[in-house]
From TrEMBL:
It comes from Actinacidiphila alni. SUPFAM superfamilies: CBS-domain pair (SSF54631), P-loop containing nucleoside triphosphate hydrolases (SSF52540). This is ABC-type quaternary amine transporter. Signal peptide: none annotated. Coiled coil: none annotated. InterPro entries: AAA+_ATPase (IPR003593), ABC_transporter-like_ATP-bd (IPR003439), ABC_transporter-like_CS (IPR017871), CBS_dom_sf (IPR046342), P-loop_NTPase (IPR027417). It holds the Pfam family ABC_tran. Its EC number is 7.6.2.9. PANTHER family: OSMOPROTECTANT IMPORT ATP-BINDING PROTEIN OSMV. GO terms for molecular function: ABC-type quaternary ammonium compound transporting activity; ATP binding; ATP hydrolysis activity. Keywords: ATP-binding, Nucleotide-binding, Transport. Residues 2-237 form the ABC transporter domain. The keyword ATP-binding applies.
Amino acid sequence: MIQIDSVTKRYPDGTVAVDELSLEIPDGSITVLVGPSGCGKTTTLRMINRMVELTGGRILLDGADIHAQPVNALRRSMGYVIQNAGLFQHRTIVDNIATVPRMLGWDRDRARKRARDLMDRVGLDASLAKRYPYQLSGGQQQRVGVARALAADPPVLLMDEPFSAVDPIVRKVLQAELLRIQAELGKTIVFVTHDIDEAIKLGDMVAVLRTGGKLAQYAPPDELLSAPADAFVEDFLGTDRGIRRLSFFTSAGLELTTAPIIAVDSSAAQVAERTKASGAPYLLLTDTDGKPLGWTGPAAAAKGGAALSVAELLPHGRPFVFGKESLRDALDCAVLSPTGWAVAVDDGGRVVGVTSQTTIAEAIRGAHAERGAAGSPSASAKAAAAEAAAVDPAIAESKAAESKAV
C-alpha cells in the first residue's frame, strides 16, 4: 500500500502545488488522480518516486518512508510511464525496454529476452524489436513505454497521462490493453489523467483534486458518479454522469426476445409465419451462422429471407455482448438502431435476442432498486433520477419508431 499522509508541496516563491493531501492507495489496484490543470496531480505522482521532493508530510510504501532508501533504488523499484512514451531515440525498441534490467545488472541476453516477452504481452509484433522509436506509430511507442516500465517487474507503476497524446481510437485500445495486463499482473498503479471518462473506465479508486492540490473526493467510480461530494465534483463529472454510471450495471439480467429473429435461408412462407406470430412489422435477419445482417421492413419481409439483399435491409447497428457489456452499451445500441431495438449477441457474434429501450429502462430501474436495497437508498435514488432524466427523452424520441417495430 502507498500511504500519502498530509503531504504538501510548496515552492520557494510560495506557490502551493499540493496542500495537506492524504490518500491510501491499495495494493494491486488502479488509483486515478484526476482534476483540472494546476490541481497537483502530476506533482503528487512525482513525489511518490521523489522526482519532486515534498515539503511537508510523508509518503509510506508498504509502511516504510520512501526517504528510508536511496532515491535511485526507489525509482528503479517503480515503473514510470509518461506522455509520448519518453523513449531513447538512439536505442532499438528491444534495448529501450531492457533499460532498467540492464541498470540492475542483468546480462544483455537475459534483459533482451525479458524485453521480447513483454513486447508480446503488450501486443507488439516481434518484428519491431530492432526498429527505432521514430519508426513506430504513437500507439506503438506508448506500448513500448508500458513494456519498459514493466521490465524489472516492479510492484508499483506510475503513469502520467500516458495516453493523452494519441487519437481516441488508439487510446481506447491502449486502455483496454492496460486493463488486460492489470488483470494478469495485479500491479499497484497510480494513473494521472485530466479525462474523467478515462478515470472512470480505468480506476478502481478515483481521487478528484481541486486547484491547489486539495482533495475533493476519493471514491470508487460508481460511488463518485452516484453521490458527488459537492458542487465542484458534480460540475467536474459533467451533466451526463447518470448515463456513464450505467457502465457499472451488467446486461446479464436484461430481458431479451427471439420472436422477431429469422435466418436468411427462410422461405417467404416462414417469414410470413414468423411475422404473424411475433406481431412484428420488422424482423431481424441473420446469416446461416446466426450473425445479424439487418432488419427487414414490411415490404421486404414479404419476399422471404433468401430473396433479400443486404441493400434492402435496415442496419442493425452495433450489437452488444449479452452479459459482458453493460446497460450503457445496450442503451447506446438501441438509441442508434433505426428500429429502436438493440441486438444482443454472444462472444462469437451470434444473435441471442433483441431488446427495446423500454425494456432497458425497466432493467435500469430494477438495478437501482436492487442496489438501493443493498447500499445507500439516497445515493441510489439520486442516481436513478439522473439516469431516468437522461434515458426517458431517448425513449420518447424513438417511441413512434418503436411502436412500428417488434
